[in-house]
Every structure is written in C-alpha cells, then in structure tokens.
C-alpha cells in the first residue's frame, strides 16, 4: 500500500509500569511517596466545574507568575508545559534544527533518543566515565545542541555546577538544556547560568520534589528571547496545553514552600539511610543526588532481583541495556516501603 511508506514510524519511549492493583510497593517511576501540599487538595475540592466550560488561559499566566516569583525571574523568563516531557519535546522541536548532532550522555534519560528520532535530529551519545560521570571535556566538539539531566538519570550522579558552566562556556554557539528533574534532592541548580549566558535553558518539573506527577506540570527557565521562541512553537502546535484545574493546583503547589522543603528533606534522609543499608547488603551504590538509588549486586543479576521483587509486589526499574544491565534503579519511598524492600531483599540474598 502506497501510504505505508509515508507513515511516520517511531519506536516509542517505554515508561515504567503503573500497576493498578492495590498493595503494590511502587518504587519504579521516581514519584514522591508523600502527598502534595494540602493547599492543592483544597483548591481541587473547591474547583468550580462550571469553569470547565471555558478554555483555560493559554499562557497559564497565574502559574507562570507563581513560578517566576519563586525563582526570582520575570514572567517572560518562564515557559510551562504538560510535564517536563512536554517542555523538553518543545525544546527539541524549537532549538535543535541545525542538522548537526545533538550531544547527550550514553547512559541517560531514555526519552532523548526517542525525541531525536521523532524530530529527525541527528545525535551522538557520549560515554560516561568508569564511575558513570559525565565528562565535560567530551562536549568540546561540533554540535547542534546539548542536553543532559543533572543529576543524571538513571544513575543519580550529580555534575557539579562548575562542570556544567564549563560545558556551557565551551558551547556558546548552541543551546544547552539542563534537565533538572531531580535537582531539588541535593544538587546546585544551573539557574544562575541563564543570566550569565544566552544559550542556557533549565528545565524542572512538579512530578518529583513537588509530589505532582499526576498533575503534569513542567517548566523551562531561560532568557526572554528563548522563552518567546518556545512559546511561538507551542502556539503553533497546541494553544491550550495546560488545563484549568491543573493551573489552579499548580499555583498552590508552588506557594507552599514549607511543605516542599519538608518532603524533600524527608526523602533525602531516607535516601541516606537506604544507601547505607544497600551497602550493608553488599550492593554497589552510586552516589545519588536524586530521589532514587542506582545499585548493583556482585553475585545476583539485575534481572533476577527485578523479577524476584516483582513477584513480591515490589516494583523497581531495570533496563536490558549494555553497562547497566546489572543495575536496578530504586525510587526512594517512605521509610515503611524501604523497610519492606529491605526485608524482601534480605530474605532472598540470605537464602542463596
Ligand atoms: N527528565 C528526566 C531526567 C526524568 O527522569 C523524567 C521522569 N520520567 C522527566 C524528565 C519527565 O518528567 P515529567 O514529564 O513528569 O515532568
């Protein structure tokens, strides 16, 4: 059939499973185990369904303003989208059109190569070093843009701000996107760089540190010129991406700074304790600045542990990919969830 040749073929990104059964311990998609601010619950309960008759504000200005105020920015320096996946997809479409290869790490967020394929952007994946660190010097080559998560995913390894700055300084002819989905859990944000350089875009999300994965809110922060370019592309694609209940909930979410800080601190404390327990159980644990740990065991394969934990109704993440096949990525859950995980692991490892 003639039309078959004209269908856009893509191999889609595969998100972590969302099991619908109750009683599952879900440590596989880096969600926050604690609820969002009570202010979010209140505003959703009070939301007037009559308002759904109207289209939402296409600019989501209330949300943009709340985010801008939180980070000391102007409204023109903030772009919002339906999760950072939407924001990042818009960035790929807007900024990576040179025909030269986009650079990103070989072990990284597995959506990058999917968007590159979707938008026909050539790319080059640069190997991490032996300790799974990004090597800034490798980014000194001709490119049509750069993107990396910081901390990186699925490793959790943080690139210090000086090293991020070095990458930006050496690449002022292309756009550098820093995907800070996990930055609130221990890293220093590259946000100041958006005013030091003209080519930097910092992307963050409500899905992790702000307990709002189901809300779907992501945002980009950059200079007004690049934010305008993003908005022009967005308005050429779909004007009303953010729905009105989400905009209202998102505003309350950003305003509750105290709630945000408390939940981040709780997760960081559990992460440190969990890293120590994994160490005691003989695991190799990468240093993590995120809300997850990347671990491997010297004598039991990643796949075996993944399957075993799933049989115990504990979901973690595993990839059948070179170099990381033996690793599991484990989201930091509540103290109780982590205790259940460690109980199951001890039973398995001690009965070998
Ligand atoms: N960037 C990275 C590095 C991630 O791990 C994720 C979560 N899958 C995202 C972006 C997207 O998150 P969201 O769309 O929920 O903001």
What does this entry look like structurally?
By secondary structure, the chain is an alpha/beta fold. It folds into 2 domains: about 15-35 and about 260-350, Aspartate Aminotransferase, domain 1, CATH 3.90.1150; about 40-255, Aspartate Aminotransferase, domain 2 (3-Layer(aba) Sandwich), CATH 3.40.640.10. The chain has 11 helices and 12 strands. It has helices spanning about 40-45, 60-70, 85-95, 110-120, 160-170, 195, 225-235, 245-255, 255-280, 300-310, 335-350; strands spanning about 25, 80, 100-105, 125, 145-150, 175-180, 200-205, 220, 285, 290-295, 315, 325-330. β6, α6 (about 195) and β7 form a beta-alpha-beta unit. The structure holds 4'-deoxy-4'-aminopyridoxal-5'-phosphate (PMP).
What are its keywords?
binds 4'-deoxy-4'-aminopyridoxal-5'-phosphate, three-stranded antiparallel beta sheet, globular, seven-stranded mixed beta sheet, 352 residues, alpha/beta, Aspartate Aminotransferase, domain 1, 2 domains
Summarize the structure.
The protein is an alpha/beta fold and 352 residues long. The chain has helices at residues 38-45, 61-71, 83-95, 112-118, 161-169, 193-196, 224-235, 244-255, 257-280, 302-311, 335-350; strands at 25-26, 78-81, 102-105, 123-126, 145-149, 176-179, 200-205, 218-221, 284-285, 292-296, 314-315, 327-331.
């Amino acid at each position: 059939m003639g039309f078959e040749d004209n269908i856009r073929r893509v191999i889609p990104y595969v998100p972590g499973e969302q099991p619908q059964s109750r009683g599952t311990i879900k440590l596989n998609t880096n969600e926050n185990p604690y609820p969002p601010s009570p202010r979010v619950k209140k505003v959703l309960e009070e939301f007037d369904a009559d308002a759904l008759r109207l289209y939402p504000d296409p600019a989501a200005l209330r949300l943009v303003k709340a985010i801008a105020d939180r980070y000391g920015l102007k409204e023109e320096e903030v772009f919002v989208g339906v999760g950072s996946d939407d924001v990042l997809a818009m960035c790929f479409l807007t900024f990576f059109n040179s025909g030269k290869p986009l650079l990103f790490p070989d072990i990284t967020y597995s959506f990058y190569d999917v968007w590159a394929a979707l938008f026909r952007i050539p790319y080059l994946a640069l190997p991490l070093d032996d300790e799974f660190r990004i090597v800034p010097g490798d980014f000194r080559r001709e490119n049509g843009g750069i993107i990396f998560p910081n901390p990186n995913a699925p490793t959790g390894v943080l690139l210090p701000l000086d090293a991020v700055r070095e990458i930006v300084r050496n690449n002022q002819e292309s756009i550098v996107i820093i995907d800070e989905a996990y930055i609130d859990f221990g890293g220093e944000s590259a946000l100041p760089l958006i005013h030091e350089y003209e080519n930097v875009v910092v992307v963050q999300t409500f899905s992790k540190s702000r307990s709002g994965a189901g809300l779907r809110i992501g945002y980009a922060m950059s200079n007004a010129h690049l934010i305008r370019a993003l908005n022009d592309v967005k308005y050429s694609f779909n004007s009303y991406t953010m729905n009105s209940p989400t905009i209202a909930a998102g505003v309350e979410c950003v305003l509750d700074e105290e709630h945000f800080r408390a939940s981040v601190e709780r997760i960081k404390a559990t992460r440190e304790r969990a890293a120590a327990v994994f160490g005691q159980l003989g695991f190799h644990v990468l240093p993590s600045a995120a809300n997850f740990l990347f671990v491997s065991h010297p004598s039991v394969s990643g796949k075996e542990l993944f399957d075993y934990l799933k049989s115990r109704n504990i979901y973690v993440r595993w990839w059948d990919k070179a170099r990381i096949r033996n690793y599991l990525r484990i989201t930091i859950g509540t103290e109780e969830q982590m205790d259940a995980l460690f109980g199951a692991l001890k039973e398995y490892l001690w009965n070998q």
